[in-house]
């Protein structure tokens, strides 16, 4: 379904603006203001977020502005991850053709200009700044932008020209130039909207200044208080008001109605927005949460290969697909130099063309969208990793996945039934939207809360591709199922379930009325496998040559459902954006004796924590709503780059016996 947006009409084209200035003879104004790694632009500073630069803040724009960047190149690169592309289409529609990397081209030298016309377009946001020389609060139109060094974008800044300073005798109008910094208050709502704080209306309590058409505002910062401690003053009429009045429940009633603004799209939602707004700071951690989909690229089956070929036809032919679909000879001519179909028979080509037409015409199925789960991306990975490798260093030529069987050490805990060395893998991640104030744990939590990345239904999304290695462990399903049945009857599991319900209902958004909290609560096997992954990750970091923050987890743990076999296993992996991948230190730990020692040491260390007995006895009771048990940063928790669930759903008591009433719930026997 296409959404109609009310746009501000300001086409974002920073490089075009720079070209225009150059034509006018203005040579010292540069469009580049900073840089960021693809991973940070995906996980922390994507479109709609607020990125800190040395002297001001910016917001990466939506995909509409990116098209001007891509048009500066003859071709557009793409990330080949067919299964991920299909998952994106379930959420955003069948019109999505590609997953593209971030616009980037490496520089040949320190002072070379390759790739200078590539990058992520951004706007200055917020556009109200405070002068550090006189506390003047003003929009960008009253300030001067300076960016005069082509190789020092960190020097870009806004200045208040003619700043009077704080002295009483200085009336201004001189040559003094003072740095202006962003005014740090914003308005946000749970529907993904973000807006400037209305300082003029706020200080005049909903009205305008009676003494001046354009009020002379000041922001007086105070470090004596906590929270929103600034005071807004109007030098024209003498009015003043503290920002602390906008905080808390009482403060929300004083804030204006949400206007439905998407500044990264220069657009407003039609009909406005009825969600309550909250006061936010530009550096708040809950200002932007990415909605991501990630896969380990696996070999394709016959059906997936057919769909992938049809998708390549869609991209190669574009708008000409429907026009020439009836003429296979013309299709072959149009594909010359774009897609090799020399050895493709007419019947196969006809089938691919028809499939491409059908997939492009398909619409989002609301039922499929509601029933889809992120676990659907894990099932093909689990099914493939459960298979024995065809030989040593077996490599799939398309996906690049390379695996080798590993013998399980006879002294290894019996529950570890199978080990696989994943010598080469490719991890692809796509950004499909974002949320504000409250993170969306599942895409189908409430799709309307997912803020869009383009004004129209996107035909591509941005993503990253990393290469690396890993170790896969499979646990015995019979042992896991028997243990899980015992845990579900325990008082500890009842306490975790009740805490999860409280946590769900205490969320800031209203999503608890739309989703049954039980559908979001992972089974005991997930808690156990997840905890095992964390303690093993810590242990492997000591021997692999990689830091603990560089190793991440992929958990396969779910009960049997229709069309989905049960799973109990984990993949610990490390990846790099470099085309050569990683160095092999993690794969070496899959060797039988080394892995057995790592597992034994990890389980032994899990039995002790420097925070015991507090950690060992931790069980949530009302009104507590934390989502972990005997786990803390001293013993189990990992960095946010490593854990897929933000250190939730962890409990050492599910692994090894700990002091207390639940020692009999340990999946592994005590390790000595």
Key words describing this protein structure:
about 25% helix; alpha+beta; eight-stranded mixed beta sheet; about 675 residues; globular; eight-stranded antiparallel beta sheet
Residues in helices, as a percent range: 25-40%
| Cα Rg | 28 Å
Outline: globular
Largest sheet: 8 strands, mixed
First CA to last CA: what distance?
60 Å
- Low-pLDDT sequence parts: 1-5
Q: What is the arithmetic mean of pLDDT?
A: 86
By oligomeric state, this entry counts as single chain
Q: What is the structural class?
A: alpha+beta
Estimate what percentage of residues fall within beta strands: 15-25%
Counting DSSP H or I runs of 4 or more residues, the number of helices is 17
Number of DSSP E strands: 25
Describe the fold and architecture.
With 672 residues, the protein is an alpha+beta fold. The strands form 5 sheets. Strands 4, 19, 20, 21, 22, 23, 24 and 25 form an 8-stranded mixed beta sheet that branches. It has an 8-stranded antiparallel beta sheet with strand order 8-9-10-6-7-13-14-15. Helix 7 (302-317) packs across helix 10 and helix 15 packs across helix 17 (592-606). The longest helix is centred in the C-terminal third of the chain and has 21 residues, at 524-544. It is globular and about 85 Å long. The model is unreliable at 1-5 (pLDDT under 50).
SSE diagram, text form:
Layout: E1 6-7, H1 14-23, H2 38-43, E2 51-52, E3 57-60, H3 63-70, H4 82-92, E4 98-100, E5 122-124, E6 128-131, E7 136-139, E8 144-146, E9 157-161, E10 177-182, E11 185-188, E12 194-196, H5 199-203, E13 217-220, E14 231-234, E15 240-242, H6 248-252, E16 261-262, E17 267-268, E18 278-281, E19 289-296, H7 302-317, H8 320-324, H9 328-335, H10 346-361, H11 366-371, H12 375-385, E20 394-395, E21 402-406, E22 416-435, E23 460-475, H13 477-487, H14 491-505, H15 524-544, E24 551-558, E25 567-576, H16 585-588, H17 592-606
Parallel strand pairs: 4-23
Antiparallel strand pairs: 1-17, 2-3, 3-5, 6-7, 6-10, 7-13, 8-9, 9-10, 11-12, 11-18, 13-14, 14-15, 16-17, 19-22, 20-21, 21-22, 22-23, 23-25, 24-25
Helix pairs in contact: 7-10, 15-17
């Amino acid at each position: 379904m296409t959404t109609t947006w009310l746009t501000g009409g300001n086409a974002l084209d920073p490089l075009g603006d720079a070209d225009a200035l150059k034509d006018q003879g203005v040579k010292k104004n540069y469009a580049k203001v900073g840089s960021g790694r693809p991973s940070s632009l995906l996980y922390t500073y994507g479109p709609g977020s607020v990125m800190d630069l040395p002297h001001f803040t910016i917001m990466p724009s939506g995909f509409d502005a990116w098209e001007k960047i891509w048009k500066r190149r003859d071709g557009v690169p793409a990330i080949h991850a067919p299964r991920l592309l299909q998952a994106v289409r379930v959420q955003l529609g069948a019109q999505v053709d590609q997953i593209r990397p971030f616009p980037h081209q490496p520089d040949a030298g320190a002072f070379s200009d390759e790739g200078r016309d590539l990058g992520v377009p951004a706007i200055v946001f917020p556009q109200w700044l405070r002068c550090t020389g006189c506390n003047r609060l003003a929009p960008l139109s009253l300030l001067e932008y300076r960016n005069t060094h082509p190789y020092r974008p960190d020097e870009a800044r806004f200045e208040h020209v003619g700043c009077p300073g704080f002295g009483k005798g200085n009336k201004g109008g001189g040559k003094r130039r003072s740095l202006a910094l962003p005014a740090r208050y914003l308005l946000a709502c749970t529907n993904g909207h973000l807006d400037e704080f209305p300082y003029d209306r706020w200080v005049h309590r909903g009205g305008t200044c009676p003494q001046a058409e354009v009020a002379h505002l000041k922001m007086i910062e105070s470090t004596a208080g906590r929270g929103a401690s600034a005071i807004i003053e109007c030098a024209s009429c003498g009015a003043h008001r503290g920002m602390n009045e906008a905080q808390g429940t009482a403060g929300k009633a004083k804030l204006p109605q949400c206007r439905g603004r998407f500044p990264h799209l220069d657009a407003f939602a039609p009909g406005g927005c009825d969600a309550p707004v909250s006061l936010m700071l530009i550096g708040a951690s809950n200002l932007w949460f990415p909605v991501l989909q990630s896969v380990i690229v696996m070999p394709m089956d016959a059906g997936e290969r057919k769909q992938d070929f049809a998708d390549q036809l869609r991209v190669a032919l574009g708008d000409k697909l429907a026009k020439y679909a009836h003429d296979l000879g013309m299709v072959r001519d149009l594909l010359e130099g774009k897609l090799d179909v020399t050895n493709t028979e007419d019947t196969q080509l006809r089938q691919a063309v028809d499939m491409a037409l059908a997939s492009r015409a398909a619409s989002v199925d609301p039922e499929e969208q509601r029933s889809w789960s992120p676990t659907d991306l894990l099932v093909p990975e689990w099914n493939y990793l459960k298979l024995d490798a065809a030989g040593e260093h077996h490599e799939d030529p398309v996906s690049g996945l390379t695996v080798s069987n590993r013998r399980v050490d006879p002294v290894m805990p019996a529950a570890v039934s199978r080990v696989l060395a994943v010598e080469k893998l490719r991890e692809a991640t796509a950004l499909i939207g974002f949320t504000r104030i409250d993170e969306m744990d599942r895409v189908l939590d409430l799709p309307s809360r997912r803020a869009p990345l383009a004004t129209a239904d996107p035909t591509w999304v941005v993503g990253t591709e990393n290469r690396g290695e890993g170790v896969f462990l499979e646990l015995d399903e019979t042992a896991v199922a028997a243990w899980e049945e015992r845990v579900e009857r325990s008082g500890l599991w009842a306490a975790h379930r009740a805490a999860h319900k409280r946590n769900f209902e205490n969320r800031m958004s209203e999503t608890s009325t739309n989703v049954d909290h039980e559908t979001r609560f992972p089974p005991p096997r997930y808690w156990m496998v997840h905890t095992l992954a964390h303690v093993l990750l810590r242990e492997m970091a000591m021997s692999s040559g990689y830091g603990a923050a560089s190793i991440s987890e992929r958990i396969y743990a779910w009960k049997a459902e229709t069309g989905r076999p049960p799973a109990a296993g984990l993949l610990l992996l490390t990846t790099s954006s470099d085309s050569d991948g990683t160095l092999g230190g993690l794969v070496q730990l899959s060797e039988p004796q080394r892995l057995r020692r790592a597992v034994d040491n990890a389980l032994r260390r899990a039995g002790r924590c420097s925070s015991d007995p507090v950690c060992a006895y931790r069980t949530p009771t009302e009104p507590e709503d934390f989502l972990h048990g005997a786990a803390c940063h001293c013993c189990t928790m990992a960095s946010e780059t490593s854990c897929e669930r933000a250190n939730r759903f962890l409990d050492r008591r599910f692994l090894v016996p700990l002091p207390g009433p639940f020692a009999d719930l340990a999946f592994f026997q005590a390790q000595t």
